[in-house]
Amino acid sequence: MCNQALAIPPSGALASSGRGERGFTLVELIMVIALSALVAVLISSVLSNPLQGFVDQSRRAELVDLASGALNRMARDVRLAVPNTLRTPNAQTVELLAIHEAGRYRANLAGGVVRHDPPRCPPSPQACVIDVLSPGMTPARVADARWMVLYNIGMDTTGDSVWPPFNSSDAATPAVVTPNGVGFAFNAGVMTLSGAAASGFRFKFASPQRRFYLAREVLGYHCDNPGTDATTGHGTGVIRRASFTSLASSYTYGAGNSSLLVDSVSRCTFTYEPGTNTRGALLTLRLGVKRQGEEIMLMQQVHVDNAP
Predict the structure, then answer these.
(1) pTM above 0.90?
(2) Has residue 300 been placed in a domain?
């Protein structure tokens, strides 16, 4: 048997043959960074326009929602106005007497044996009662009323209106609206008018349809300081909603007696066209809302039923 010697390589050679790692050079690292930056720029340029478009669309949707919500709230109140009580003292204000309850009446006796139409109240201490022919009225809602309106045909020189100076605070003077201070009660189809102001009061006109309205408050909307802030691009105006418990020639609107309906108002105009023999009355509401330099304008027209 022959013995063969095995050749064993040096330990250093064996160790070096097991290492195959090598690092990035500075040039390669710079190229990777440059390529990554180029890809990021390409991606951002592709996505920036859609993202900006989404932001713009969201802002426009918010502006439309603000303006349409305000206009719809105003239109809802306008549709509940007592006939011929809507007025626009100026282009930024609209006011109306709101319907609280409505029904039909029967000519009353006024303490005698002959029925009177329009109804009238006898002198105190006799009770002033009017028969109500409409079902569904509740004592609680009638008790909340402040005024009763009968055949209000509008504000003119004959004094046929609920608004001063055409309405009357004198209980002895015929008017289309009861004086301040009259109380109302309802029981078993009979409405009772009470208080010193009711004594001897007479309604001015009889309603051909025997229709009456009860009102509890005057509702008003006022657009204050419309415009644009040059620094922020936001609208500077606000629309305030207020309710009043007296009939007055004019009202004031402030933070203490009104609530904020919408802000960022840049433009607003309220135009009222009274009805004629050929068409009904029409209220036109124009509202502009502006934020960050972007403005939307909405217009809404509301038909006003003034049949008394």
Answers:
(1) no
(2) yes
